Amino acid sequence: MTGQTRTRTVTLVAKAQIEIEPGVILPAGSYNSMQKQIRLATLSGMSWTKPEYMVELSADQLVYMVAKNMENCISIEYDLTKFVRLGQIVIS
Length: 92
Prior knowledge:
By secondary structure, this protein is mainly beta.
């Protein structure tokens, strides 16, 4: 079956504060996150994509992180994959 997605909950740990987007600073600490992979058909059979890591931050967390214009915001999901791959965030 192609296009199948598998997800699991992981804890990501930021070793130091990281600017995850302009003006949004993720403080050092642990964050409950989601790891996602997609199963794809390849010439040699089926394979899974490299994991991607997403974190959902509440409006309250974002205000604390200096995000602006959070009126009417409940939460925002951020892709932290590049920070995991760079070693700035580790999987615990």
